[in-house]
Amino acid sequence: MEAVIDIKVIKTEKSKLPGTSLENLPFGKVFTDHMLEVEYKDGQWQQPVIKPFGPISMLPTNATLHYGQTIFEGIKAYRTVSGEPYIFRPFDNFHRFNISAARMMMPEIPEELFIEGMRKLVEVDLDWIPNKPDHSLYIRPFMFATDEAIGVRPSSTYSFYILLSPTGPYYSKPCRIYVEEKYTRAAPGGIGFAKSGGNYASSLLAFAEAQAKGFDQVLWTDAFEHKYVQEMGTMNVFFIIGNTAITPNLEGSILEGVTRSTVITLLQEQGLKVEERPLHIDEIIAAHKAGTLKEAFGTGTAATITPIKELNYKGYEMLLDTDKWTISPEVKRRLDAIREGREADVHQWMFPVKG
Ligand SMILES: *Cc1c(COP(=O)(O)O)cnc(C)c1O
């Protein structure tokens, strides 16, 4: 039998929880009492430690600050209606984390360290999981290079952390989307499929310009023609045309969302045909003109399903009446029901926090 991973736990002397309201928390601003920290050196992961959340120290020569060798994940823990804590599909995030690591020439994380480290940390800060509908505990694993020398090369040392942040309620308001044609998010051969910092830094300018024009988000298009739709900021995208749900296929420039995979399964269970294939903007426009474009939405861990009420392509406005939709609201309803333990978890998406 494999040895159970040894995690050292140093508890905080004074919990911040009594002074923190877990209601109406903005995303990503409040963190729990503890964090997990592990260093990688001499070709090995060292002893993982759960310790009080706090500053970390580094020299200004830290390689990540200069060359961006860094990756992350986003996962959620919830309580079911009976109060039991679960983490949603952590193994899928674990696999994606190592796919990102390999692309960025970073060491892979052993499954036990990632999963048991996360489970144990959530267990230590269990009382931080909000017990309210639409609230959750956001889990942020990340890894970055820690060599202290300037020069472009893969680092030989790394740090891996897991942070926890209570959040919610997260209402996904219908959004207005600008189809981006000037800037490119990712190209084949690049790092679009990796959850790596640079992908987000390079997208900020496009978001800012779209927001200045009154839009909430951009819909990225392919790097060559700017005609094939790809995904949104931190969301994959689905279009329902007739009785078929279409989402762009994964060809290396798109992040393989865990929510995307969940939604594909749920749509199929609801009797829809799901196609993963290249989707040209002209096909969306033609469907809109013909009245067969029924629904359009983004999928991601933060907001689960975000309806698109307007799509703007070169000034051509496609408006969608989200009040009339039935398919994606049903997907959202079922996803919430599974997470809250009101519908059977037949796919074993829910991972129990209590061992
Ligand atoms: C994280 C992310 C998604 C959504 O992935 P989920 O696993 O569903 O949260 C989609 N696109 C990008 C670019 C992302 O960073």
From TrEMBL:
Supply the enzyme class, top level.
transferase
Q: Which SUPFAM superfamilies match?
A: D-aminoacid aminotransferase-like PLP-dependent enzymes (SSF56752)
List the catalysed reactions.
L-leucine + 2-oxoglutarate = 4-methyl-2-oxopentanoate + L-glutamate; L-isoleucine + 2-oxoglutarate = (S)-3-methyl-2-oxopentanoate + L-glutamate; L-valine + 2-oxoglutarate = 3-methyl-2-oxobutanoate + L-glutamate
UniProt keyword Transferase present = yes
**What biological-process GO terms show up in the record?**
isoleucine biosynthetic process; L-leucine biosynthetic process; L-valine biosynthetic process
| Protein task | Acts on leucine, isoleucine and valine.
Record's protein name: Branched-chain-amino-acid aminotransferase
